[in-house]
Amino acid sequence: MVDLIAKTPCADLLPIKVEAVTLSEVTPEAITSIMPYEGKWEVASEALKSAHGITLPGPGRSTGKGDIRAIWTGAGQAMVLGARLDAGLAPHAALSDQSDAWALMRLEGAGGEDVLARLTPIDLNPGVFKRGHVARSLLGHMNAVIARVGAEAFEIMVFRSMAGTAVHELEEAMKSVAARAALR
Amino acid sequence: MRIKCPLCGDRDSREYTYMGHETYLDRPGDEGWSADWDDYLHLRDNPAGVTRDLWYHGAGCTSWLLVERDTVTHDILRVELARDAKRGRG
Amino acid sequence: MRIEGYGRIDRDTPLNFSFDARNFQGFKGDTLASALLANGVRLMGRSFKYHRPRGVLTAGSEEPNALMEIGQGAARTPNVRATMQEVFAGLEAHSQNRMGPLRHDLLSVNDLLPNFLSAGFYYKTFMWPRAFWEQIYEPVIRRAAGLGSLSGQANPDRYETGFAHCDILVIGSGPTGLMAALTAAEGGADVILAEESAHFGGRLISEAEELDGQPGPDWVAEMLEALHETGRVRLMNRTTVTGAYDGGTYGALERVGLHLPMTPDLPQECFWRIHARQAVLAAGALERPIAFPMNDRPGIMMASAIRSYLHHHGVAAGRKVTLFATNDDAHRTALDLMAAGVEVAGVMDSRTDAQAQGDYPLFAGAQVISTRGRQALREITIRQGGSEQRIETDCLGVSGGWNPTLHLTCHMNGRPVWNEDIAAFVPTEGAVPGLTPAGACNGVYSTSRCLSAGVAAAGAALQAMGAKAPEMEIPEASDSPGKARALWLVEGKGRAWLDFANDVTSKDIKLAAQENFRSVEHMKRYTTQGMAPDQGKNSNIGALALLADATGRAIPETGTTTYRPPFAPVSLAAIGAGGQGKAFAPQRFTTSHEASVARGAPMIEAGLWYRPSYVPRPGEATWREACDREVTMVRTHVGVCDVSTLGKIDIQGPDAAAFLDFVYANMFSTLKVGRVRYGLMLREDGHVMDDGTTARLGETHYVMTTTTAAAGEVMKHLDFVQQCLRPDLNLRTISVTEQWAQFGVVGPRSRELLNTLLDSPIDNDSFPFMACGEVGVAGVAARLFRISFSGEQAYEIAVPARYGDALYRLLVAQAEALGGGAYGMEALNVLRIEKGFITHSEIHGRITAFDIGMDRMISARKMCIGKPAASRAGLQDPMRERLIGLKPVGAVKQLTAGAHLFEEGAAPVAANDLGYVTSVGFSPTMGHFIGLGFLSDGPSRIGDRMKMVDHLRGVETLVEICDPVFHDPEGEKLRG
Fold this sequence. Notes:
The complex is a heterotrimer. By secondary structure, chain B is α+β, with helices and mostly antiparallel strands. Chain B has helices spanning about 35-40, 80-90; strands spanning about 1-5, 10, 15-20, 50-55, 65-70, 75-80. By secondary structure, chain C is α+β, with helices and mostly antiparallel strands. The mean pLDDT of chain C is about 95. Chain C has 21 helices and 50 strands.
């Protein structure tokens, strides 16, 4: 009987640390996209609530409880991270396993915002992009999901195949920012 | 340039791609080739002033948007989800 | 020379630098210009056209003369303004635009020929004899032309781009800008204060002014502290705001590392895109010269620049200084120099009613009519009333008044407005939405009124944002800008320069008018005035005043040219940062990438993806050997290939089938669950967009595949159809390209291979051709599709991407055990050409379903995208170029893609062009080259001989037109 060994997207790339900022891989148990059918958003949200204790997030937001989180990822779309979804959701929404499709990274430390400012055009000011906020935008030339998960912590999702590029871009930005900080 | 996506908020133009005039929403019903089809595919006004165009928020939420913009002043007057605009016109 | 007790430099930190290989010492806080002046160096460059000796004219960003090459080796940068380059330990600078040493530039022979080198001379010369142009004129001109030179080597330096957001952007940190920034911050706004120089404070650092009874620089330091206290102000010095764009977007160039020795990982420059809800322009004003004969010698500089060098850098620009001015403001230079113990030999004020403000010789109503001293000024000649007089001087300060720095207000096609009172252009209100000009850049010249203007502008910006303007205390400051009058030109013997950087003189402007280039836009291009690195900052107004005069118009009538971004020169490396090297484009790697690389497979790019070209075995010397072997291996045994890169789109919902019927030409609602079908997708104009296969995994569940490079485009199209055309359809789509690693298992032993790995074996009945379904591999839930791109028995197996690497290695090992192995893109391509299957080499955007013989795939039973347009007669004309195969039948055996097809006897010219070749490959199966292409009335010409001609590669081959399916035309192998 053969055994297929699993590899994570950033297996040979992370973690890395430059001065105060670290970049590490996050591997939730599962990632599932939920796209409720026409007129079924509320019903789907209620089903999600009763099965997993969280509701569907509105645009730009996330919801969560314990290990399970839902992040908004597009028009009429959210992704649930952390647990395999209950089958009861099926009639209300299109469900799609995305567990292997994404490289998920955590950028943490003082200056993390400055690092991201080199790569993404969204406004990261803490007064504007608050904890629990999520945005779909660009990271360099890549489509990405960016979330603030702490005062000085961000989560970044890019397509699995671009993990190498994402890590490279982030590392270069981390180095540039650290070199400036060293001047002060 | 910036466009305020109804879902994502105010974003830099690099997140969007332009398609063309709102005419694209009104696909002719004719089964075969017709003057309406010719108009739909090939004929457009080029106003110095307000125009309503379709844009795709490809690097964002992947919504199609209908953007009302003045080509002379560059003011953006209104942005709505194309889906809503389409449903409104039947 | 240095003056003790003056300057804001750090005299405790001396720094050694070199200029033209001579060593000098400066101090931290010096610019290259101030340090050279301090060391008595006056000659700093050679002018563009005439190669005249030049010294520094200004103390700032607008410098036209002192352009230098900085650095060594690959990182050598030309055209750096010496007034902006901060001195650091080990700085190497060289003068430029000379042949031989700076003191003895051989090209200064040009200065003997001004009558031949006047404006537009190149339109009237170098025409005869014709042969001389290529052999002599052009090479000589090319060597002499240009300003500064690049190293020619790859740039090893680091650059970055960044995005910043704020409520209020304040541009400029003089008195106006500092008050605006503090007002904005006190009003609760998030502020960015951008300052072009290294120091904050603007002109306050260069003047002997007092605010609230304390020296200007001390007041500036207090303000910076106050700004810091608010916690809402981001200070960005060394940052030039280069352009104003739509929607409150501003471009800005920050000099990050240019003032320091090379530091690892430190960027040289950062190009910022700043988004501000509101902005205040507090960019100040620039002093303008007067055009008088021989006004360009080293030692002739702006009167305010002399004050800058004195107060900011502690440098006296000369020992015996004279001034030539049209206004009261310039007299301050005399007063400040005398207070510092420097001799002032005379102030020439062109106004007959000028008043002396101190104890210096004043020549009221006087003009400078000539100067002497080629490598350095030593004497001027003045005319007062009817008499002339010579005055010995080594430094002449000139002031023709001030021009508001209003460029940014014109970046969105706005034009400035002429203000007769100050004889200057001022911004037009509202020219850039959200940008409020204030202070000197708005024509307000007294310090006191600038302070108020800053407060008012920030207040207006706050109100525009819906916030309240706070009450602010205005410091006490001088309120007397003094009087001024305009003087544009002093007539006399000798050339009078307008544009120092491009060597444009008053004669050139008059010549332009004389030759009917009367519009300011024409005058600019004809004379090149305003087209140099300073972009006319020192000459625009003077030149248009002369043009107005020469054409009998007033200045407002004559108008200005258009100011465009960037305000100051920006290196392409800075704009292109984030796009160099690896950052140019994302690299997409499959899960089998490592395994392929480990086997020495060279990679090719398909879109952003990297795919192995071929997988070489020991002993194979060329790619052809590997490719031929792989093709044969697949057809006789089994091959494994990574096909994960093809787009995969998950489609679910009650209306999924109806949706597919609408976007595909052929029927999909009739496809049974557990089956796959080839689909043809048209554009609305009736041409083919893409092809692929779509599998029905459930009643309301499909997975569509697309061509690798077209995946994004198809996804966008499907979104368009759902949202803009058919929001009535109830379905949802999402990309699953990355979720699944997918591999082709191809060849007569493919089923055998799979059955060694699958949890439950399959056979031809349980899994016939075009079947699909869920299977298990080592307990992992996988998907299996029986489709073929090679014409052999074939499958594609998909597992969640985390298992991709492991499954690929396993498949290849099993394949090798069965006499086969891994294969790459070259073999994949030959295999499909042998079967006449098309790719985007054939689907190139101008072909229809009819052209590829698939018009009957457009279902008659339903509407689809592209159907009405495809029915146009012109798209169904048999004489259109239609899909055929071709093979060589003469002595030449080579086929090339891109070659064109002609009748055997016809001349291979465009008029006889009948078609073209799209795909070629050597077929080991057929034993010769094969190709696919498009030929007018192609299918009717099967059996004909034609001429294939490739003009680019110089190949001509006699070919026979044949059916595009070369191998196994009955398709027997597929179904076994």
